[in-house]
Design goal:
The complex is a heterodimer of chains A (58) and B (138). The relative contact order of chain A is 0.14. Chain A starts with a helix and ends with a helix. Chain A contains two helices and no strands. Chain A has one domain. In chain A, helix 1 runs antiparallel to helix 2. With 58 residues, chain A is mostly helical. Chain B has 138 residues and is mainly α. Chain B is built from six helices and no strands. The chains are: A mainly alpha (58), B mainly alpha (138). At the A-B interface, helix 1 of A face helix 3 and helix 6 of B.
């Protein structure tokens, strides 16, 4: 199996956010919100860190 | 000066007659099983799919399965993470899945997927235990 780096980020963020959402909140509505928040932070944080590394290199 | 502040203790609302330890162990051995025993079917299914898929993708990416016999501290931590996957880890070891050494970046991703799947499974099992004891509301 081959996968792009961004694909790996998306899959990792998705599965991790699902587990975080279910385990860290009690109410289903808040679970979804927290899961979406974690997903956005994972993906956004990775993109931000990637650009930061690019800027450091250049 | 100390203050004797007592936080109100929430009355434990047990959601099952099964022993919480059994739910913890079941949740560790099979992802989502603790929630299934508590009849939280959707949560259990989502946890099962997420953790098994993550572990499977890790194997498909040629990730490494760590064994107990190692002298490296990081390898021991990775082994502890892998062990969190319960029966998935046992099956991977029995059927000799996973690769012995990481040689490409994607395989390193696979290794991390496997370790994190184990760690997430521990979180899920502890969550089921908290639900069983009443420490977590619902």
């Amino acid at each position: 199996m081959t996968i792009s780096h961004f694909g790996a980020v998306l899959l990792f963020s998705l599965f991790t956010s699902v587990v975080f959402g279910i385990t860290q909140r009690s109410d289903p509505k808040r679970m979804i919100r927290f899961g979406a928040f974690c997903f956005a932070l994972f993906v956004g944080g990775t993109i931000a860190a990637s650009w930061l590394m690019w800027l450091i290199k250049h | 000066m100390t203050t004797n502040v007592q936080a109100p203790v929430r009355a434990a609302q047990k959601t099952t007659t099964l022993p919480p330890t059994l739910i913890l162990i079941a949740g560790w051995l099979i992802p989502g099983a603790g929630h299934f025993l508590l009849k939280k079917w959707i949560r259990g299914l989502l946890l099962f799919i997420s953790i098994v898929a993550m572990f499977g993708i890790g194997l498909a990416l040629k990730g490494k399965i760590y064994g107990p016999n190692t002298a490296e501290l990081l390898d021991m931590l990775n082994f502890a993470g892998d062990l969190g996957a319960g029966l998935l880890y046992v099956l991977a070891r029995v059927f000799d899945l996973g690769h012995a050494a990481v040689q490409i970046a994607i395989a390193d991703y696979g290794t991390k997927f496997i370790v994190v799947a184990g760690l997430l499974n521990v979180i899920a099992a502890v969550d089921a235990h908290s639900l069983a004891t009443g420490r977590k509301a619902s």
